[in-house]
Amino acid sequence: MKNIVDARGLPIPKVQLHEMLRRMLKIRLFEERVVSVHSAAQIPGPVHTSIGQEAEIVGACMALRDDDYMTGNHRSHGHPIGKGVELAPLMAELFGKKTGVCRGKGGSMHLAVFSVGSLGESGIVGGLMPVAVGAGLSARLRGTDQVCLCFFGDGAANCGPFHESLNLATVWKLPVIFLCENNGYAATVAQAQSTAVADIAQRASAHAMPGVIVDGQDVLAVNSSIAAAVARARAGEGPTLVEAKTYRYMDHAEFGGFKVGTDRPEVEVAAWRAKDPIEIFSTQLRSDEDLSSEEFEAIKSGVAAEVEAAVIFAQQSSVPDAQALLEDVFV
């Protein structure tokens, strides 16, 4: 058996490798099921899936501790799954049920799961980057060595909060890891049409922090890059900007029976589908004798059963009472 090693050159335990694969499959199968129930009009509002981006999510989240923080964006289901949230209350939230992680008030784009350190997801592009800075400041003031992982897209890198957040994080040397999920598109606009630089990581130098580019389809490469940034942050050396080159296989969003963002070149989509992160990782595990065919099927079938149980849980849960409209509004 060959050893797959971490950023320090130490062997990664087989159980950890299998958990990486399990979480990637959870994101993939969860979101595929979300698309199907959304098409059946069981989920209100739009849904934005991260199918194809599983490696950068899981690789990053598994470089964190349980008590570390995380902020996300409108492509929001994968992040809490990557951090370890249970699927049933997450699915119930998408259904708008009171058993959901936000009691049915957040829906697909506005999730928060404090139990796993997820401070929120938001439909406001770049809107949670300042929150990540606030989480880093909180850790600093409380004297802990917690860090905050901030997910954002390439489109958010062209918004004001991006520069404001990176600047202040450097000025105060805050323990924040800014992770750009660069899937090449801001909704329907290709990066080359909206962004002056080829790599978002180039902008790190303007804010006096390291800028790292990593293959977002390689879960181990992402894990190693984020682990190094986390170690730097815990040591009090400040923030890091990591850019994961990745791709979403589905459209930008599905909403009310129509799709948004379907005009990408077929050859481009095919090229990225050939770099499926789950296929890449499972093939590597097999070649290194860390995963048998039987183990893969057992992991996948277990995840599939968990996803189906989550759908049933959501379908059978109750909607919030009318009185809930007045809760969590005033203090």
What's the layout of helices and strands?
Elements: H1 14-39, H2 54-61, E1 69-71, H3 78-83, H4 87-94, E2 118-120, H5 129-142, E3 148-153, H6 160-171, E4 176-182, E5 185-186, E6 189-190, H7 191-194, E7 211-215, H8 219-234, E8 240-245, E9 253-255, E10 258-260, H9 266-273, H10 277-287, H11 293-316
Parallel strand pairs: 1-2, 1-3, 3-4, 4-8, 7-8
Antiparallel strand pairs: 5-6, 9-10
Name some characteristics of this structure.
6-stranded parallel beta sheet; two-stranded antiparallel sheet; alpha/beta; 11 helices; Rossmann fold; 331 residues
Walkthrough of the structure:
This protein has 11 helices and 10 strands. It has 331 residues and is an alpha/beta fold. The chain has a single domain (14-314), classed as Rossmann fold (3-Layer(aba) Sandwich). The strands form 3 sheets. Strands 2-1-3-4-8-7 form a 6-stranded parallel beta sheet, with helices on both faces. The protein has a two-stranded antiparallel sheet with strand order 5-6. A two-stranded antiparallel sheet has the order 9-10. Helix 1 (14-39) runs antiparallel to helix 10 (277-287). It is globular and about 50 Å long. The N and C termini lie far apart (58 Å). The mean pLDDT is 94.
Broad structural category? alpha/beta
CATH architecture: 3-Layer(aba) Sandwich
Largest sheet report: 6 strands, parallel
Under CATH at level 1, the class stands as: Alpha Beta
* Unreliable residue stretches: none
End-to-end separation in angstroms reads 58 Å
Strand order of the largest sheet: 2-1-3-4-8-7
**Which fold name corresponds to the CATH topology?**
Rossmann fold
Give the helix level as a range of percent. 40-55%
Shape by Cα distribution: globular
Beta percentage is 5-15%
